[in-house]
Write a sequence for this structure.
């Protein structure tokens, strides 16, 4: 198993899906436990990867390479480096936890968990693939289950949200497809092998690089999402069921940044440097605009969705700087945002399950009625606003410290974002949890064991990484240094 | 006596050797006779006897074709010329023959499962299908002007009959008539164009015409008119804009299995013919005439896909929607023929490769989508309105999943075959540096997702019955098998398409 | 791990730091299940922490070396190209701060046992106190800017949690939010300062930064901006103008919290930070600091005069005193400022706890509800009085020494730079005002006749658990400044001592660091050696060097003498006036209020800061955020949906065009062939012939176009 650990990690959920499809539909619990088991295996494997990953090595590890379509130089080429490992772990962890967050799904259980497992395979594959074609296939594979997961199990406007998500992301990915083909054809010999595209980037002329970069960027930007390509996100988040929101924000948003770092940066260094400032500007816009929009939201889930936009802005700013601190900050922020926002969406789900609405103004004083819940919300909120001691702070600080030497003014403007973030988060905290308890909610039960089970591991990670971030930084620093180097070979 | 001797020589030296390479067509004609005979011997309505005959001969023809593919062929552009240059036996033709035969086999099965025909006698239908199949094979392999025309007409005439086969169905009759009128005008236009070509060069063979045109200056306007008239004829067959008007009405009106057939096989044959004409005629003459032929193709392509997609968005009838979708797909396919190898000035290998590959993929996914429509007509409603598909997905899981696979494949999403097909087409376009066309193409893919997703939305997202579980729909086992048979290649070719790519490569490689 | 710190010292310091954190953790998870809800546990843990702190302090005292410093440093984040460690810096200032924080924190724990008895979230309260103590201790122990920022934010968090302890009250949750956000605005500046220093110097460690400054690696306006940025943090946390507005509202928290956080320790963090980083502030930055402090001191004191809420009065007094300390540091009175920090911590904590004791007794914070409580609560009264005397600067008490030192420093500075003499004058006035309003509080609360008989009747002296802390603090308020130990231990640092031997100063004497040290101030008068940044300043601040303890001894001595005398006079005058107004009631405060109605309104409205901010800052932000949301839904998303909508409209149109317009167009032509078409009547649809005509027409048109135009 260890020889093909990435394949197992990626495709085990698919096996689980097959098993589930073969199950009778009237055994929902059996299906749920099977799904949980099927997603537990990748988690175990990702822990194994975490333990056995050689942190001193910048290059690729656990490589698996088999020719796929020989005539077109397409390979089944999997491998991970420090950029992928945190994402693989995050994906495995969130998928596993989300199985439990999906426990109260009772409509078409079989279809839900089968699609979910398919989704996991797609996500895992994106982070492991090193052949551009393979990467694209995985990238698109995620779309299909996502469409149905939002569209079938979502909220009242789920159809609109699902198709919007689908069309939007498809637009991005077809642009990516064109870029991919262009990169393939302009390279002699034609290849999709990313490692070769990285090293032999010189075949691409300046104009070509700029054009392809923009096309790829739009594809990735939609996923991040970067202003002004973000409007699918609030709708998708609000309508999606809890677990899917978690996956969407926790993993899918990361793919945009991941794609840029994995593909655009090393393959198109000229364009990377050329567009760095623009990227930083977009990052700052994301930070501030997302925060401002979040502040005005009345729907808690929408607020969290906009806060994601804001937080992803930090990633953009950090990676645009191309400094060690900036790059590490950006990727650490990806990881941290994954855990924090997953907590937030899970928490939104908890309250929604009880009160059946998410109107911030409609609550009040919940802290007295649901103290444990409030405690966990507080941890998640404060992590989100970048409180030191919790994980978000480290990544934000790294981003700022990394970006400041390169973009002084922009970074100073961006720092204002931390006040805005604190503003909307504390305001929300106050409106929902402080004050006198709303009479309607006198009998609201506190968080239950299953929900705690999904939240506590994340809370622990948030706290541990806030105090001691090296476990994650250690994984990625060498690879990111290497990527930053490659991106600056102008 | 001399004449007789000549005939003898002709028979011995030309016909007899050619016959060896003409086995599939002969089998089909024999099957036609047998099917008629089989039908005559029974009175049972909707009898399946002729269907089995048809299936048998189709499979035999397919086997013969495949067997013939293995034969060693002389190298070169011409392939193996049969019947004094009327027909060519080359990998390209063989490829298409396989495609047509497989399509026809699948359609015969579809017809067996279809309710569209009521209790009509079906014997003639199957017999006619065999004729169409033979005509399609000829279309793909003819290099002679006359045979080009005759094969086209052979397919067309039988198609007219097929479309109007269910006489009691007003829609179908109307569609059949439309088809006739349209077809006759366009084939009239085409033969006019062909006669101009013949008049200019005195040759009937495409290769020779091309060569002759290349060395005869001053014929530009005439060639141009001829080209467009020929294009009109072929464009009608592939339903390219602006020769598409017949298409939605006919597709909607015709019995669904035949709609499926028309949307795949004759279209593919049209592309085969177009490819040949393009290679032989415009590849050389085009450069002489200084017509930017690729640009013309590209414009046709862009118009066709855009119009098809854009109008499809508005459709509420699934069959009509699929009709427009098939127009759009003709547009995608035309992209491949718009690609020119900048070095040689001829049609690019990659472009033709993309077209052939896509046609195979398209065969499965489009027939698949129609198979679902047929299955649902049987189970749900006669109307084929999207709204009537509401909530079907959960009630018929296999059918729903299969439909999702077909539609997503039509959209071009990995890991489905449609993606690979589009990938090759786009690759060709980008290699030919037609970037604007690539952008138009991808935007069209996005639009197409919208209307394909509408069907899926109805099937899965909208549940008429929110309260209780609606009763599950039971499909006939044969239908399930058929769906699996169509869905499996749609998925498998998206994951591992090397064998098909190899086949396609062999089929086009000899030309370049 | 780089260290010159003995291992046992490391252990002790880490224990000091972590014990309160352990208290927090235990309280959060098990607090309610512990006997007595765990108050003894938290108190005990902070007690151990305090004992260890005292041991450490005695150890420093034993060395009695002004330059004493021990440091231990561990790597924390190391990603190659970016390195930051965590470490403990233990010097005299740290030792003093540990003592102050430990003592006040322990006493507040003790006091809270009585004060919060029976509170619904009793154990959580102690948990929060624990995390506060941890953060505050971390803040004074850490050895680098990033760690400072970390703990800086954490004290903000604990302050937030404690202010909002009674979060059912809207005012409390509002105040908590306001406190966090207002201080965070300052923190933005602080973070920018940190970023500037890191970007330029590549380190966060204090000693390395000082060395870099001494070596001239950073200087001029950049360093000024860094300094001002860092000081912004202090403006927020130490409630300086213009970010002082949160502190009075923070009085919504339980009174012991006010004593601990919002009087003695956290609010002094800004002062501590300026002191800790004193060496990197340029003269320009220091001048900004001085004037910000001055404005704060004067403004807050004036507001304090009209407050009727005892805690609010004390809050403004705190702001004013913090302004004092900041001004002192700004004028170069390093020792004076930090000295006042310590003395103020004791007497202000005492004042707050005393007020808490009163509030506990009468269940009101309004001074009009009090009066005459002296008899009911003697311990409270006497200790409160001691603190009041101390804050007023009555000779012999701790406050006198530190305040006198500040006035001396500012006078010395003013004598050096006569244009800045106003600093001294205003501080002097403020000293008088301070004495006035503090005695006003004493008179209104404890003396005179009870104004609310019912409350008075129920009032009683607090239990021992509350009075003992008062007594201890009273002792400290009196005697903590005796013996001159502080001045000897906490001595203004010199930049020169940090200079790396290998590097010669970039511009001899031009270093502002030199100027700070005051030793080379001759050189500073030499125009040629003044750094460029200073040339630009028309005020000629370059000579802003003499202020401070090591300035010219003659002048300093004279300044101190003048300051001492005037300050005693000012204090006496203030006390006298207070007595005349509120004790003897010779003058009627009411009359003055009437005569100066406008001024009174201005003061009681606190100069309308809250109103201005509510409209200007909060209102604007909310407006912008709503505008952003509207923009997002209508413009950005509207564009997306609009595109979709238009695309569908387009498709509808094209479909219509395809099905009818072309038909319709050719229908005209069709009309001419109607007769011909009649034979098809039975199956007439009116479409087919049109299609055909269209088909032929298109083919011909295309050919024609090609002929005429060419493609």
């Amino acid at each position: 198993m260890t020889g093909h650990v990435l394949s197992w990690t990626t495709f085990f959920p698919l096996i689980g899906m097959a098993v589930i499809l073969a199950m009778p539909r009237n055994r929902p619990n059996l299906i749920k436990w099977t799904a949980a088991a099927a997603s537990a295996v990748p988690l175990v494997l990702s822990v194994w990867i975490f333990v056995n990953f050689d942190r001193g090595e910048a290059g690729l590890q656990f490589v698996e390479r088999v020719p796929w379509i020989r005539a077109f130089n397409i390979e089944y080429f999997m491998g991970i480096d420090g950029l992928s490992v945190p994402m693989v772990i995050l994906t495995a962890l969130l998928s596993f936890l989300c199985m439990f967050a999906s426990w109260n799904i009772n409509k078409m259980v079989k279809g839900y968990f089968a699609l979910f497992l398919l989704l996991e395979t797609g996500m895992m594959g994106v982070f492991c693939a090193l052949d551009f074609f393979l990467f694209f296939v995985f990238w698109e594979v995620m779309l299909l289950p996502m469409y149905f997961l939002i569209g079938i199990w979502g909220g009242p406007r789920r159809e609109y949200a699902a198709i919007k998500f689908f069309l939007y992301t498809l637009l991005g990915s077809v642009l990516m497809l064109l870029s991919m083909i262009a990169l393939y054809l302009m390279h002699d010999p034609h290849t999709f092998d990313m490692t070769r595209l990285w090293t032999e980037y010189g075949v691409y002329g300046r104009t070509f690089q700029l054009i392809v970069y923009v096309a790829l960027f739009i594809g990735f930007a939609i996923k991040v999402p970067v202003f002004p390509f973000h409007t699918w996100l609030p709708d998708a988040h609000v309508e999606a069921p809890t677990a899917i929101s978690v996956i969407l924000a926790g993993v899918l948003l990361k793919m945009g940044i991941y794609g840029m770092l994995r593909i655009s940066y090393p393959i198109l260094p000229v364009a990377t440097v050329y567009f760095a400032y623009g990227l930083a500007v977009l990052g700052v816009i994301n930070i501030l605009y997302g925060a401002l929009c979040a502040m005005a939201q009345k729907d808690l889930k929408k607020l969290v969705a906009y806060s994601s936009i804001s937080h992803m802005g930090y990633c953009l700013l950090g990676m645009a700087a191309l400094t060690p601190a900036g790059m590490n900050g950006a990727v650490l922020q990806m990881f941290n945002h994954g855990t924090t926002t997953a907590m937030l969406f899970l928490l939104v789900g908890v309250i929604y399950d009880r009160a059946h609405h998410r109107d911030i103004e409609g609550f009040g004083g919940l802290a007295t009625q649901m103290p444990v819940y409030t405690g966990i919300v507080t941890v998640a909120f404060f992590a989100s606003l970048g409180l030191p001691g919790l994980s978000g702070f480290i990544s934000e600080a790294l981003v700022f410290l990394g970006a400041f030497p390169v973009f002084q003014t922009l970074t100073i403007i961006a720092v204002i974002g931390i006040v805005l973030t604190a503003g909307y988060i504390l305001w929300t905290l106050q409106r929902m949890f402080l004050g006198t308890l709303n009479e309607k909610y006198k009998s609201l039960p506190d968080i239950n064991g299953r929900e705690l089970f999904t939240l506590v591991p994340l809370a622990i990670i948030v706290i541990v990484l806030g105090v001691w971030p090296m476990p994650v930084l250690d994984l990625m620093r060498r690879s990111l240094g290497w990527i930053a180097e490659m991106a600056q070979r102008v | 006596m001399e004449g007789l001797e000549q005939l003898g020589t002709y028979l011995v030296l030309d016909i007899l050797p050619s016959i060896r390479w003409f086995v599939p067509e002969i089998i089909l004609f024999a099957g036609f006779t047998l099917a008629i005979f089989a039908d005559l011997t029974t009175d049972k309505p909707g009898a399946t006897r002729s269907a089995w005959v048809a299936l048998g001969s189709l499979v035999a023809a397919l086997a013969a074709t495949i067997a013939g593919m293995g034969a060693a062929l002389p190298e070169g552009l011409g392939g193996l010329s049969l019947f004094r240059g009327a027909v060519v036996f080359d990998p390209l033709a063989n490829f298409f023959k396989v495609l047509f035969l497989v399509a026809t086999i699948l359609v015969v099965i579809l017809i067996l499962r279809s309710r569209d025909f009521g209790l009509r006698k079906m014997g003639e239908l199957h017999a006619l299908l065999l004729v169409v199949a033979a005509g399609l094979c000829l279309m793909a392999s003819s290099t002679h002007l006359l045979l080009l025309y005759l094969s086209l007409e052979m397919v067309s005439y039988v198609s007219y009959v097929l479309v109007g086969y269910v006489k009691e169905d007003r829609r179908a009759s109307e569609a059949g008539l439309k088809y006739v009128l349209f077809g006759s005008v366009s084939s009239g236009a085409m033969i006019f164009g062909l006669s101009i070509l013949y008049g200019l060069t005195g040759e009937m063979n495409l290769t020779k015409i091309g060569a002759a045109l290349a060395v005869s200056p001053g014929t530009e306007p005439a060639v141009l008119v001829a080209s467009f008239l020929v294009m009109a004829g072929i464009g009608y067959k592939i339903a390219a804009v602006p020769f598409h008007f017949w298409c939605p009405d006919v597709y909607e009106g015709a019995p669904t299995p035949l709609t499926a057939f028309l949307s795949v096989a004759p279209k593919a044959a049209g592309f085969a013919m177009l490819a040949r004409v393009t290679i032989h005629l415009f590849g050389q003459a085009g450069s002489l005439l200084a017509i930017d032929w690729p640009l013309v193709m590209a414009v046709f392509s862009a118009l066709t896909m855009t119009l098809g997609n854009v109008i499809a968005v508005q459709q509420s009838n699934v069959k009509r929607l699929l009709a427009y979708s098939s127009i759009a797909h003709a547009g995608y396919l035309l992209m491949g023929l718009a690609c020119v190898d900048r070095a040689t000035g001829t049609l690019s290998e990659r472009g033709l490769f993309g077209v052939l590959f896509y046609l195979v993929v398209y065969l499965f996914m489009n027939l698949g989508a129609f198979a679902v429509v047929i299955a649902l007509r049987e189970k749900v409603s006669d109307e084929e309105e999207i709204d009537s598909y509401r909530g079907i997905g959960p009630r018929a899981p296999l059918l729903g999943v299969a439909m999702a696979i077909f539609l997503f494949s039509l959209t071009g999403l990995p890991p489905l075959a449609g993606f690979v097909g589009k990938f090759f087409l786009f690759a060709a376009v980008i290699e030919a540096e037609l970037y604007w066309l690539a952008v138009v193409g991808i935007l069209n893919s996005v639009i197409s997702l919208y209307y394909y997703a509408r069907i899926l939305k109805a099937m899965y997202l909208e549940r008429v019955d929110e309260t209780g579980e609606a009763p599950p729909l039971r499909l006939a086992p044969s239908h399930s098998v058929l769906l699996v048979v169509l869905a499996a290649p749609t998925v498998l070719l998206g994951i591992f398409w090397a064998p098909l790519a190899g086949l396609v490569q062999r089929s086009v490689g000899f030309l370049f | 791990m780089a260290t010159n710190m003995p291992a046992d010292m490391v252990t002790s310091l880490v224990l000091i730091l972590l014990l309160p954190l352990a208290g927090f953790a235990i309280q959060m998870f098990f607090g309610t299940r512990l006997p007595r809800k765990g108050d003894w546990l938290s108190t005990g843990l902070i007690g151990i922490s305090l004992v260890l702190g005292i041991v450490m302090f005695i150890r420093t005292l034993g060395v009695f070396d002004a330059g004493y410093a021990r440091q231990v440093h561990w790597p924390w984040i190391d990603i190659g190209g970016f390195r930051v460690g965590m470490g403990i810096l233990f010097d005299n200032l740290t030792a003093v701060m540990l003592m102050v924080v430990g003592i006040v924190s322990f006493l507040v724990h003790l006091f809270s046992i009585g004060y919060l008895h029976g509170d619904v979230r009793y154990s959580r309260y102690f948990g929060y106190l624990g995390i506060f103590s941890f953060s505050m201790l971390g803040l004074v122990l850490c050895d680098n800017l990033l760690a400072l920022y970390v703990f800086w934010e954490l004290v903000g968090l604990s302050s937030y949690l404690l202010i909002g302890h009674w979060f059912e009250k809207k005012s409390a949750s509002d105040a908590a939010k306001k406190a966090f956000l207002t201080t965070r605005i300052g923190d933005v500046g602080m973070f920018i300062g940190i970023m500037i220093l890191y970007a330029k110097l590549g380190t966060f460690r204090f000693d390395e930064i000082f060395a870099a400054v001494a070596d001239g690696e950073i200087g001029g306006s950049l360093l000024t901006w860094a300094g001002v940025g860092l000081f912004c943090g202090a403006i927020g946390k130490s409630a300086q103008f213009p970010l002082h507005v949160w502190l009075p509202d923070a009085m919504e928290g339980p009174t012991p919290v006010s004593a601990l956080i919002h009087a003695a320790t956290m609010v002094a963090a800004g002062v501590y930070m300026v002191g800790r980083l004193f060496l990197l502030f340029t003269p320009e930055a220091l001048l900004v600091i001085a004037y910000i402090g001055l404005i704060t001191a004067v403004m807050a004191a004036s507001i304090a005069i009209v407050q009727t809420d005892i805690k609010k009065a004390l809050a403004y007094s705190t702001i004013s005193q913090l302004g004092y300390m900041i001004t002192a540091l700004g004028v170069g009175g390093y020792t004076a400022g930090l000295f006042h920090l310590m003395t103020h911590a004791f007497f202000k904590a005492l004042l707050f706890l005393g007020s808490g004791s009163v509030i506990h007794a009468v269940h009101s914070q309004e001074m009009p509800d009090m009066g005459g409580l002296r008899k009911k609560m003697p311990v409270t009264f006497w200790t409160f009085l001691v603190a009041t005397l101390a804050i007023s600067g009555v000779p012999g008490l701790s406050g006198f020494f530190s305040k006198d030192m500040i006035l001396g420093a500012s006078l010395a500075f003013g004598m050096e730079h006569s244009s800045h003499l106003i600093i001294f004058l205003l501080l002097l006035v403020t000293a008088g005002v301070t004495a006035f309003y503090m005695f006003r509080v004493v008179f209104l609360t404890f003396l005179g006749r009870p104004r609310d008989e019912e409350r008075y009747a129920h009032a009683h002296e607090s239990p021992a658990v509350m009075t003992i802390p008062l007594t201890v603090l009273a002792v400290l308020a009196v005697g903590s400044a005796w013996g001159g130990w502080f001045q000897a231990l906490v001595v203004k640092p010199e930049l020169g001592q940090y200079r790396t031997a290998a590097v010669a100063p970039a511009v001899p004497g031009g270093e502002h660091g030199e100027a700070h040290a005051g030793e080379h101030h001759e050189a500073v008068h030499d125009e040629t050696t003044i750094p460029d940044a200073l040339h630009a300043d028309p005020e000629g601040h370059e000579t802003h060097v003499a202020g401070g303890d090591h300035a010219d001894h003659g002048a300093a001595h004279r300044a101190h003498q003048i300051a001492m005398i005037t300050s005693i006079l000012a204090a006496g005058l203030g006390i006298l006036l207070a007595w005349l107004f509120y004790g003897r009631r010779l003058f009627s405060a009411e009359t003055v209020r009437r005569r100066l109605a406008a001024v009174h309104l201005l003061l009681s409205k606190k100069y309308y800061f809250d109103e201005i901010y509510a409209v200007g800052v909060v209102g604007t932000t909310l407006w912008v955020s709503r505008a952003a949301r509207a923009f997002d839904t209508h413009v950005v998303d509207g564009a997306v949906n609009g595109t979709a909508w238009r695309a569908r409209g387009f498709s509808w149109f094209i479909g219509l065009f395809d099905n009818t317009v072309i038909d319709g167009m050719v229908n005209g032509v069709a009309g001419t062939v109607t007769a011909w078409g009649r034979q098809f009547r039975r199956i007439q649809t009116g479409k087919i012939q049109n299609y055909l005509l269209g088909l032929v027409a298109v083919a011909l048109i295309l050919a024609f176009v090609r002929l005429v135009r060419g493609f």
Remarks:
- Chain C touches chain B at residues 647-648, 650-652, 654-655, 658, 662, 683, 685, 687-689, 691-692, 694-696, 698-699, 702-703, 706-707, 711 (CB under 8 Å).
- Residues 609-672 of chain C form the longest helix (64 residues).
- The two ends of chain C are 77 Å apart (CA to CA).
